[in-house]
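Why predict the complex rather than its parts? Because the way molecules touch one another can change local conformation, and only a joint prediction can capture that. The input here totals 479 residues.
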Amino acid sequence: MSIDGHTPPPFFKRGPAPLARLVFFLTLALLLLVADLRLHMLEPARMAVATVLWPLQKAVMLPVESAGEAGNYFTNLASLQQENTELRQRLLAQANLLLRQAHLDEENRRLRALLEMQERLDVSASVAEILYTARDPFVRRIIIGRGLTHEVAEGQAVIDDLGVIGQVTRVFPLTSEVTLLTDKNQSIPVQVQRNGLRAVLAGAGSGAMELKFLPANADVQPDDILVTSGLDGIYLAGLPVAKVSSIDRDNSFSFARIECTPLAGVERHGQVMLLGKRKAPPIPDEPTEIAKKSAKGRKIANRPK
Amino acid sequence: MIQPIHSSRRILLPARSWFIYFSLAVALTLNLIPFGRLPGIPDWLALTLAFWCIHQPLKVGMGAGFFFGVVMDVANGSVMGQHALAYVLLAFAAGGLSRRILWFPLGQQALQIWPMLLSVQVVMVLVRMITGAEFPGVLYFLSSFVAVLLWHPLNYVLLLPQYRPAERDDNRPI
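Output of the joint prediction:
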């Protein structure tokens, strides 16, 4: 109780009660969570804070980078020479395909024109360096050193010399985040190279991948190579993705459990290639027409557009 | 009276606000070092935040926890609000228990800090698992153990400016 002009001494002035403050901040944090996860509203704010933090992050990366470089410095001559020989041999082995590539491309284009098929699209590509693995232990992401200033866009496919690594999921001014194929929320349409069987490959956690929704009697064998089918309009068709490692055909489940291991060095460091954005093929709108037919009768469905 | 712990007779200089925020910024910087998926890297920010919430509950509290949590979310590339939620809970617990914890010697303090740091990790795992992320493995929880081992040295480092004598004495031997 205070009398006019006699306020109580401020010894115990601590603002609102701790519990009230806790409820306030918890509500704020939960709102942030919902806004980010469900509404995806916070990307501009995230980019702003990330840009401010970037110099700090760059500075912190220096000791880690220099440690790696010191390691490289002491790599001895013999191992470099060996690597050099191996690379020459690989180049020679691929020369057969590479030298005829232009010829085959031209032939393919002419044949496609003859058959009146859609032309295959060429995509641009640029090389980027993997900076580090994201610190968030719940996802499998890497950070690469190319961003908005290098015209990287969300959704670009990322490959290395052995196959597909993942997809760009978030772009910052100077860096971008690539979600690896082994991430639990990442999936990629593939087909079995041997017989063209199409399926969806999804990350299964802990570095493995799983072929989803294939019946127990599907024609898949161990050591089958899976390549991209190109149906999603993001990945080019025919890029190697994974190898089938084990198949569990349990009749009590309707789907086979098919585990795969990635072919590319998904969890290793080095350089990657960013494939340019591809235009997705138009999606046929048959299902909606059928829905309309059943819902509103024939007249509306047959009306000319 | 500011003492290193309540049962101590030593009286310290008052803590300076700029040093508190400087130490939190340094902890944030340490958190930014890209160790990748190496297990057992302590969460420096959570540890430093718990320290100041216990030693200076009037200066550092849930507001600072929320702010640094959001910054950490961006830096880590995790879901916005994940660290903020966990750090606010940590600041609440540490601030509420500060009067009790400071009566114990440092070793026993660490025993009481550990459940707080572990619950920070549990909260983050729960938030991410509910939203469909994969379980990071049991080794993920190793980092709170490592952090607790650092409680003892951290006490000396962060209280160092307050250990200085009140009057400057040029003829003092050390």
